[in-house]
Amino acid sequence: MTAKSYTFSHAICRKPSRSITRGLRAVDTGTPDPALFEDHHAAYVGALRDTAATVTVLDALEDYPDAVFVEDAALCLQEGAVVMRPGAPSRLGEAAEMAPHLEQLYGDVVQITDGFIEGGDILTTEREILIGLSARTDQAGVADFTRLVDRWGYAVRVVDTPEGVLHFKTDCSLLDAETILATKRLDASGCFEDYNVIHVAEGEEACANTIRFNNLVIMPAGFPKTRDTLVQAGYDVREVGNSEAAKLDGGMSCLSLRFSPKA
Ligand code: CIR
Questions:
Q1: Residues with Cβ < 8 Å from 224, sequence gap 6 or more?
Q2: What is the DSSP letter of 85?
Q3: Residue 253 has what DSSP assignment?
Q4: Mean pLDDT, rounded, for 7-25
Q5: What is the pLDDT of residues 209-222, one digit of tens each?
Q6: Which of 3, 65, 103, 239 would disulfide-bridge 23, Cβ 3.0–4.6 Å?
Q7: Which CATH fold would you assign to the domain 10-259?
């Protein structure tokens, strides 16, 4: 049987804008270089396409410096798409920019209208949807999301994002139907008790945001211990430069919406 949680026919990305230099960041570790960001982004899109997926790359949005991080504006499931309500005020308008693109692909597109919720806080596994409460995602947003996806039969489990961590998925990724890559600090919360967990290496916490996309595990370059662990575990690993997105707290999942709309 095909695993719907990591088998995808499509992805949507958005070109980084020149305004990316003004993107949000928790700590200022330097301004991202737009040209290098573009190179990394092209390599990322190339990796997605190497799995034979159809990848749509939308135009940059200069008015939204963080719009390259498309994951936060929507969640795509097989049955339909949910347009989010980002908790960062400067990112709220990104959701309305994404909606028309989803409407071209899906018969069913629904919108969060209550509270706040960002896609980076949502991990879809084979059997459930985990949502981490965070500074960007609140109880009202989660309740609205739960109500909306109930029509498609999804079970939602609410968990906590560690203090000071931007999104739930900043600290974890799905590797296959039963296996999660996670930081020790997130795993310690007990939220993955029913899964196999592979820990990112000590000091390599910044690579926990990785994606399983068809046959590939796409991870940020520069985390050799975790990469070796994943290779030894049998995953087909592709490394992509992420130094510029990392300055804005972005990783591999943030850069795409991944989906297979039901025919
Ligand atoms: C932000 O703070 O919203 C962006 N600079 C980074 C968003 C990363 N998105 C994600 O992890 N899903």
A1: none
A2: B
A3: T
A4: 98
A5: 999 999 999 999 99
A6: 65
A7: L-arginine/glycine Amidinotransferase; Chain A (3.75.10)
Look over the chain and give the mean of its residue pLDDT values, rounded to a whole number.
97
Phi, psi of 208 (to 5 degrees): -65, -25
Best mutation site among 68, 124, 205, 248 for ligand 1, i.e. most ligand atoms within 8 A of its Cβ?
248
Strands (E), 122-169: 122-124, 129-133, 156-160
CA distance 263 to 260: 9
Q: Please give the structure tokens belonging to residue 54.
A: 């159809």
Annotation says 167 is catalytic = yes
Q: For the residues 111-136, what does the mean pLDDT come to? A: 98
DSSP string, 25-59: -SS------HHHHHHHHHHHHHHHHTTT-EEEEEP
Give residue 263 CA to ligand 1 midpoint distance, Å: 31
Is 10 a known active-site residue? no
**Per-domain residue ranges of the chain:** 10-259
- Could you tell me how many residues make up the chain? 263
Stated pTM of the model? 0.97
Q: Tell me which residues have their CB closer than 6 angstroms to ligand 1.
A: 23-25, 66, 69, 71-72, 88, 91, 119-120, 166-167, 169-170, 248-251, 253-254
**pLDDT at residue 1 greater than cutoff 80:** no
Ligand 1 atom with the smallest distance to the CA of 88 is 3
What is the distance, to the nearest Å, from the Cα of residue 50 to the centroid of all Cα atoms in its chain? 19
- Please give the Cα distance from 83 to 99 (Å, whole number): 6
Per-residue pLDDT averaged across 45-63, rounded? 98
Tokens 């799995």 belong to which residue? 51
- Phi, psi dihedrals of residue 225, rounded to the nearest 5°: -70, -45
